[in-house]
Each structure stands twice: as structure tokens, then as C-alpha cells.
């Protein structure tokens, strides 16, 4: 496998043969950790030119279905620690077809640029004419029309959020996929990097064509017959809205409640019935879980004239910009999603920040002079303005809020209801102990690290914290394998250890289930070591008081139980 290294400071690039890395660490997350260790001083300022971005794909791309994700790894400007974000679309296939297993970007350009990787060539293009365009969708269209490779390329770019160094700005790839969490968009902006285009014109070969065809058909059959895959195709992750509301696990109005009276209007079923325009898929995926809603926006003063836009929606967006803000107006929610998409912001962080700001205003911790708009739960129009202000930052309050809810609560108070874990804003689940312990000990502080929310629905209320930690870690260690392959986590029920071993063989790679499990454990340890070097400290993890105050399906949570879990995790799993 080749690694492409790009130096923005010198406008140079080089290619290295790093088969050693991919043989030992699989690909994706496993390789990205090692490359970051080689290239990055763990003590650097995340917004300095010394920060490093690694994009890595896995050995199953583009060989097998559902292996369409790319891992991005960097030092996060939101948490000040290890940043890791995954995106689908065409990115992984484009990188693979261009002949690379990973791309490393370091340095800082003297002027705004965008990079074009066209197989073996790298071009540094002047981006001054598009720097300042806040709409990430327009930026994508401009670059797509100017550059070749239509259908086999990926266009990763930032909008106004990344340019303004909003710490939770994302990188949009294609039209509806994102490197969403941890602030990669701000890292792009700090490097004067508006976009990265990858055009891949190559292909791949297998050692055993007959064996490959057989395992490919098996994976495809399992994918198409899976009940979970059917669910994701029909309604997408938005199918979770109603069930979570029923079990009292849907964060509402900054987690003051776990049920939302407007659920029926913003459920996956409601979106499918009234707004669903089409379904699309990532490259090499037969499921098409990306759901696009149509929204008609009337032209002011012009009856019967409308602008129709397509907006991607999923559960996390419905939670963060819907129930978390008390917004039950479906069209209003779609407008909020579109505004976040426009600027290239992480929807989860944006929603949690606005929910905190609303409650801070209610409690007179901040004034309307600071928020400018009178923030009220349920008022989507006010939140539309506030999103503009997060990006434009007209005063000190919004300059602070653009750094995340942890920073905002440091400055203005309201720490008890500032819903961040490891400084990363809360995902959309308040199910039980495993959920929140999972956020805290997950190496990305994400629901995707170990699926604690799913574990909570399987176990009773009398499980010891040590058992919860062990089960969460075991799941996360296996997910290091999946995110190194790199396959979509929605397909984790398809890509089980036995199948992964079989899928490697036609590619000329012999391994075993035990070897895979051991690699997952090693990658997990390597990530912890890197986090510790970047300053991560278990004892500094903050448990938001609000999660203890609001009942979940298991009742009220006990802080001492969570602290006991953290102590056990530190002693057993955290390595220096």
C-alpha cells in the first residue's frame, strides 16, 4: 500500500511504500493512528500549521459491498485531543482507485488553496476566488464543474464554518456525507485548505477470482436479506425517533425531558410519508440508507412560486436540531438542517450548543444583548439566526459558543447542564448507565464507539459497573477492526469475524479470528496511548449533572456508579 504525503507549506508531495503498516495494522483506523504518531507532535495547537490530517481507507475498499468509509484522524480543535471522524460517499473508493491506502496532509498554505489528487499527480489550485463562499454546497458545485473525473472523484470541502474556525465545523464530501465530528473543518480552515479533490482512475486485482466471486455473493446476499439493512433502507436511522421516545430515552429541550410531544411530526415515518424525495447510497453500497427530504420554500411576495431543495436527514439531526431544541415543526426542522449543511457544521454539536444557550438565557446566565436573538425552545426561526451568528461571530458570546459547549460553560457558567463528554457534545441517547459510561470512555466520546445505548436496552438495572465497562471495551475493540477494514458500522451484523477471515483470503491475505481480535485490542491500546500523550486524563472527565437529574428507562442514574466505572476502566485499560 502506498501513502501519499502532502506538504502545504512547501507545496510538495511524496509517495511512500508502507505495506509494513497495512500488514500489521490492517488499514483505516489502525494505520491512521500509526501515521499520526509518526507525523504529529502530540502537544501542538490543533489550529497551528503543525497539526496533521490523515485520511485512510481499508483493504476491503473497493473489493466488497458496504466497505465505503474513510477514516480521518487529526488533533481535534474541539476537544484538544485525538480527533477521529468517518465519512462515506465516494471518498474511500476514489483514494483506493488513485492508488493510495492513505493520504497525509501537513503544513499550512500561504494563501487559500484546494488540492487535486489525480492518480499519481498532485496539483495545488488557487482557491482565493472561492474562499469566502460560506455555502459548502455551492463550493462543491463550483469545484465539481471545474475539475474532471466526474463519477470517479470525491470533493471534500469546507463552508463558512471551517473558514471561521468554528471548532465543530465539518468537512462535507460529495453532497450529503460528512466528516462530521471533532472539527476537521476548522483544521482545514486553519491550513487555508478549502477543499481536497481525489480522482481515482485505477482498479484492483484479486488473487482468487472464483473465491472472490463466491464471498462477494455471500456478503451481498447477507446484506440484502438483513432485517437491519432493510430498516435502514426503508426509513433510515430516523426509524429510531419513535422507539426512543417510547422508552423515555429521547433527549428533549437540553435533556430536561426524555419524551417529546412533537415526536409524531418529526419521526422517520412522518418524513417518509410527507417529505421523502429519494434514497441514495454510498459508493459500492446496495442499501441506500441516505434519505433525502424535499422542502419547498416560497419566494417572498410571489404566490405559487417555490424553490425546491433536497435535504439529507437522519436520527442524529432530528434529535439535535429537533427534540433537543423542542422543534416539532417538520419544515422548520428541515430548514435548520439545511442551514447547518450550508455552513458545514456538525449538527450534533450545533444543536447541543444552542440548547445550552437557550437554557443559559432562561436562567439569566447570559442576556439577550449577548444572544442577540431571543432563544426559545421550539422557535426554529430564532435558531436559524443563531446558527448564522455562530459562524459570523458578531460578539464575544458567539465567538465563545463557536468553541463548543464545554468552553461556553467555562466562561458563562451552566456547567451542570452543559452536555458534553470529553468536551464532545452529546449524541442523541439517554438510555442508561452504559450509554453515558460509553460516551465517557469511548475513544471518540461517541455513541458509535461501543453502542452503550444498545447495551442498556439488553441489560437490567442490577449489572455491576465493571461488567458494563468490560462489555463496552470488548465491543469497542472489535469496532477497531471494523473501522480499520473500513466497513460501515451499519453492516456490523454482516461483517462478523468468521466472514471477515473468509473475505481476506481471495485478496491474498491469511488471518484468523484470534488474530483479528488481537489486532483490535492492540489498536485500542495504541489509540489510548496516543490520547494520553495528547493530554487525555481520565480523572478530568466531567459527568454532566443533567444526566443524573433526568430519568431514563432505568430510572435516575447514580454518580458514584459512573465514577466507579471510570476508576475501573482507568486501572484495567488505560495505558501510559
Describe this protein's structure:
- This protein has 576 residues and is an alpha+beta fold.
- The protein has two domains: 1-225 and 466-534, 4-Layer Sandwich (Aldehyde Ferredoxin Oxidoreductase,  A, domain 1); 226-424, Aldehyde Ferredoxin Oxidoreductase Protein, subunit A, domain 2 (Orthogonal Bundle), CATH 1.10.569.
- Helix content is 43%, strand content 15%.
- The chain is built from 26 helices and 17 strands.
- The strands form four sheets. Strands 2-1-6-3-4-5 form a six-stranded mixed β-sheet.
- Helix 1 (19-25) packs across helix 2 (28-39) and helix 19 (433-441) packs antiparallel against helix 21.
- The chain is globular.
The amount of beta strand, in percent, is 15-25%
Count of discrete alpha- or pi-helical segments spanning 4 or more residues = 26
Strand order of the largest sheet: 2-1-6-3-4-5
Using only C-alpha atoms, the radius of gyration works out to 22 Å
CATH architectural type of the largest domain: 4-Layer Sandwich
The CATH superfamily of the largest domain bears the name: Aldehyde ferredoxin oxidoreductase, N-terminal domain
Per CATH, the class of the largest domain reads: Alpha Beta
Distance between the termini: 30 Å
**Total of domains:** 2
Mean pLDDT: 96
Q: Which secondary-structure class do the elements indicate?
A: alpha+beta
Low-confidence stretches: none
